[in-house]
Design brief:
alpha+beta, Immunoglobulin-like, seven-stranded antiparallel β-sheet, three-stranded antiparallel β-sheet, 10 strands, about 20% helix, about 50% strand, elongated
């Protein structure tokens, strides 16, 4: 009986440490900017895949860009060769894909004129 209680206590202790480590610093998407395409800074997401989607009725080329985050703090951006091209209002969707936990998603409005993007508040 004492061995069973000891084993259960150790399992609870180890699982609590694992959950605390995983949940301690969640990934964040910060500093979304426009210009020639869209760029964003991603913090605490090393090893995760990312995706930037430009969604709109007149986005012609380069609407989705994907990649993998290789460092603790990294700036991700849409492809510049060939650039994303579109016209009018669009929605920017930035997603960090995590395996077990839910994805981190940031969405917001923007305007697009050719390859240039103007990010609108509240993004």
């Amino acid at each position: 009986m004492k061995k069973t209680i000891l084993c259960l206590s150790l399992v609870v202790l180890v699982s609590t440490c694992f959950v605390t480590t995983v949940m301690a610093v969640p990934p964040r998407i910060t500093d979304v900017r426009g210009g020639l395409g869209v760029s964003a800074t991603v913090v605490n997401a090393q090893g995760h895949d990312w995706e930037i989607i430009l969604k709109g009725p007149f986005v012609v080329l380069g609407s989705t860009t994907v990649g993998t985050i290789t460092s603790k703090s990294e700036t991700i951006h849409t492809s510049t060769v060939p650039p994303a091209i579109g016209m009018g209002p669009i929605k920017i969707i930035i997603r960090i894909n995590r395996v077990i936990l839910p994805d981190i998603v940031l969405m917001g409005p923007a305007m697009m004129l050719g390859p240039f993007v103007i990010v609108l508040p509240p993004l």
